[in-house]
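Hello,

Our lab assistant flagged a job as stuck in the queue for most of the afternoon. It eventually completed. Since we weren't sure the result was trustworthy after the delay, we are filing this so someone can double-check. Below is the sequence as submitted and the structure that was eventually returned. Let us know if re-running is recommended.
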Amino acid sequence: MFERDFLGFINDNQLADSTTQTLLAVSGGLDSTVMAALFQQAGLPFAIAHVNFGLRGQESDDDALFVEELANRYQVPFHTIRFQTAQVAVERGESIQMVARELRYQWFGEIRRQYGYDSVATAHHLNDVLETMLLNLTRGTGLAGLHGIAVRQEHPTVGALIRPLLFASREQLETYAAARSLKHRDDRSNADDYYARNRIRHHAVPALTGINPGLWATLPRTVERLRAAEQLMQLELNRSWQQLIQTEPDGAIRLPINGLLALEEGAFRLSEWLQPYGFTREQSRQAWAMLMREPGQQLRSATHQLTHERGFLLLSLVKVTVLSSCKTTIQGLLETRNRRVCGQLICCSYHSKPDGFVPETDKAVAWLDADRLIDPLTIRVWQPGDRFRPLGLAGTKLVSDLLNELKLEQRERAQTLVLVSGDTIAWVVGCRIGHQFRVRAGSRRLIRLAVASTGE
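-- returned structure --
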């Protein structure tokens, strides 16, 4: 029965078939172990990928061994990688959860493209959907946040990402695993109420299923209604946007104030319209209030500006001067202490590696292995097509993609520098160092680079 439900869900949503190759993300826990068993039972072609985040010592290594044995038992391709997640999180100054998620999906995307898999599958289920809905609700959200996790999406890093277990609750997965005598690994951190999601899982969800024991049957219908409501809302927003706007020859957009004021729920519509242009909810409220005031006021997002002109709001791109020709070559790195480049001061100092060395988390500072740098170094503005290997990642990434992920303002993006050693980017200045130049256990001589604006 459960296996039939799985196949029905797969077929109804066109997630996989006998001609597709799916890369399963398997941690070794209950959910992903059941997912692998279901794919095997259904005869669907698949491979297994496992990420060892190195966060739980021997337990993490045992998880990796368990998943490898699972792949061998099913006689399917196995891919694995180990990350020094905690170290990368410290060096980036970001949370372990955020770094682990980025490392994981970056690697999945690389493996999918390298080996030609059609999609990557994760083992999210109905409990995850409910937890996500409740978590988003507590933080504040719209309809998109309330319908939780998509069955299929085009992920910016992974590509095609599917969730073939979104038809089932965790209790159903547990029942299936017990009936099939499926062994799996347990992550003790899932029992820790320190994390908000775990508190929701351990306390809020049981309370809700106590109120409605049939919750897992009604939840998918609720999610589908919310998703349909969001689609209808987007259609109406697009229709009224096209009816209202006036486009200038230079691409700027005019929003007539009388037209805005005549709309039902005009403030809500304006907020939704401005969001793709980088404006926050608070800025959208300010924009609506601007309609009642004298012309001349202006709001800015990272990429656009909204100006109150007489009779309309003008939405236009922020004009930025691109320093494409800015470039400095440094010969004799050891004699160089600082250098002014494109209005920024790059300060340099050398150190012997001390015992217990921990790099600063300030993104304006980079610690590199001096012995891996090649003279001469070049400092220049990044260029379209520039690629580098960010710290902690297995493959390369476009610098432009990194800047997008960091959500830098357009002015900052245009003036971002890169430090190039030979033909390899060692540092996207103020953002991320290159993995090849990181400080290792065996590093002896370190270089500390810091960037500051000179106001030039």
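-- support follow-up --
The delay was a queue issue, not a problem with the job. The result is valid. The chain has 15 helices and 22 strands. The two ends are 70 Å apart (CA to CA).
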